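Q: Convert this sequence to structure tokens.
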Amino acid sequence: MKKVFLFVALVLAAVANAAEPYTYTDIVRLSAKQRSVYGLRSTADGEHYTAMVGGSVCRFAYATGAQTDVIYDAKA
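A:
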């Protein structure tokens, strides 16, 4: 049983050590990939954002994440 535990521990250590560490250059390249969140637009007041929910455009508060208003109701 001790040999099995030792073998599993060695395999896990080898797998964890096999990953290459990130460099500063890798991080800088990744930061340029995504400039915004898909489906989310900030409003001019800086306190709210809008998103599509079931075909309707809804306004949400950044502070709470709660829906505050329906800008456009697609069902109407």
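Residues 23 and 29 are 10 Å apart (CA to CA).
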